[in-house]
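Quick question, first post here. What does this chain look like in 3D?
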Amino acid sequence: MKFNSTKSKPLEPDMTPMIDVVFLLISFFSILVNFSQADQNQRINLPISEIAKPPDAPPTEPITLNIYPYGIIEFQGKEYDLAGLRKAIERYSYLIKQLDVKPADVTVIIRADGDSPSGLVQDVIEQCQERQLQIFKLRARQDNLP
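> Answer (accepted):
Ran it through. Tokens below.
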């Protein structure tokens, strides 16, 4: 009895179906992501507050200001110091007036880090009020309360 001594190639699985499933899962979870919380910024560590409550409805015409502990303020994706923020808010105020939006109708969402100076938050609010921005929402965490 003679055996065939030819070598056979090892079987390799077809990866195409697995890659298709991975892309379908990525697409599925991308669609499920809630994009309505665009004012989230993970670099800001919000302070804890018992008084803070989530808003009942999303604000109309919102702008978000992120205040970092080292004194930098982020507005519309750019970082400013206090003087630079004044100019940016002035430009924004002029722009919304051109779009027939009253500055008094704009909601300013302030997300200050828990370690940022409270005086800086007050200065930011004053600068907004100088440009007739009057509605403010301060963000804080409600979890981990003692």
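The radius of gyration is 26 Å.
Strands lie at 62-67, 73-75, 78-80, 107-112, 135-138.
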